[in-house]
UniProtKB/TrEMBL annotation:
Keywords: Chromophore, FAD, Flavoprotein. It comes from the Bacteria. Belongs to the DNA photolyase class-1 family. It comes from Hymenobacter frigidus. This is Cryptochrome DASH. Residues 1-107 form the Photolyase/cryptochrome alpha/beta domain.
Amino acid sequence: MVPVYVFDPRLLAGHPLGFAKAGAVRRQFLAEAVRDLRQQLRQVGSDLVVRVGLPEEVLPALAQELGAAAVYASAEVTQEEQAVETALEERLEADGRSLHLFWQATLHHLDDLPMPVRNLPDVFTQFKNKVEKFGKVRPQFAAPTNLTFAETLDRGTVPAVPEAADYQPAFRGGETEALGRLHDYFWTKDLLRTYKETRNGMLGLDYSSRFSGWLALGCLSPRFVLAEIQRYETERTQNESTYWLGFELLWRDYFRFVAVKFGNRIFRSHGLKEEPLRRAPAVTKSAQHSFEQWRLGETGVPLIDANMKELLATGYMSNRGRQNVASFLVKDLLLDWRWGAAWFESQLIDYDPCSNWGNWLYVAGVGNDPRENRYFDILRQATYYDAAGAYVKHWLPQLTGVPAEQVHRVGLLTNDEQRSFGVRLGVDYPNPLVDVRKWGQADGGR
Ligand SMILES: Cc1cc2nc3c(=O)[nH]c(=O)nc-3n(C[C@H](O)[C@H](O)[C@H](O)COP(=O)(O)OP(=O)(O)OC[C@H]3O[C@@H](n4cnc5c(N)ncnc54)[C@H](O)[C@@H]3O)c2cc1C
């Protein structure tokens, strides 16, 4: 057995809106994960062969060089990934070799769902209830402890990501870091106990688990996370928080099964809806300009900008932040939700096609659950979840001198206030892109 990882140059391809499909921070996290995997394999007597190129070309060539009978990989569910699988299989078969794909990634195996995936419920809660009652989670495999490696084989090197040199990662990619974080979060800091109360936070590292990046790349198994939750429930405590982390893993499963059921519909403007509700927003100069300001964190709305700056610097954003910036893009800037999803795809270290496009569908109101379609009043959200303004001031230090009760409405400061708080609108911080006086009135929802 020869473990191989292929870095696909298609990750560097440009999006028509002017950025790489996978930005530097995301590629850095991936490179760290692959280096760590190599280290793990070396510790058990094997190694990881690393190549750069198209997997459907590199793998058949390597299989030929080695005289391998078959290639084994995990099965993907979305179009671009499946196109690679198909091309790979065709080339391998032309050489008399086979491709074996394995269902991985989710807590519940596709084959163990209590319904055929074509009958997946359109409402998450119905899915959750069925799976909790009738689903099963397969046991984990033990990791191999003793492998061998063909010494003559060129191991290759993990490509460096020079553009990401100055990023500010909270965590590094790779299983070692993932297991360390889980141990810290559950056992050392005992934070699982209060997860349900803290999970809507935005500032710091400990309000939520931060497992997402490792789960997305396969450095951490959801089945292992669940087993650790259960151990915690036996050894420490069982409460709403311990339940809730497992519940969130079901959302993750659900979005993967939604992608299987609906295929490419998750990528189209009207999503899972049968008919377009309205025409997709037009690609105008002004729309592109608003999108640039959103993407770079320069909308003049502090909660949005702070979150977008955090994403740029770290490749991560809290769930609360993601919901707000997505709602703002779709419902306040009236832009095409797919632009937002494409930017998240480029930036997120936890980018996963199903979770990303699936969550965007729901925020954009084109998923299949009508109850998920709601508007976020950004000011109400900001004053509720960042009452003291500590989060926005952390990412927008130019607002440090603005008092907490005004920081989320900074666009409304008078000239005198700007002078006394040490911030000039349009100079140190942008004027707001939208009329912020519309917020704070109606129930903006939490
Ligand atoms: C517009 C938008 C885009 C998103 N894109 C992604 C994405 O590309 N990849 C991704 O992993 N998550 C995505 N999410 C979901 C969620 O925001 C992140 O999973 C979560 O913030 C990660 O932080 P955490 O690991 O600390 O989460 P925790 O709160 O600790 O949750 C534990 C785990 O549960 C899963 N989970 C939690 N919430 C969700 C959810 N709503 N959907 C799917 N899985 C969830 C994640 O795997 C997460 O690691 C998106 C959410 C929104 C609103």
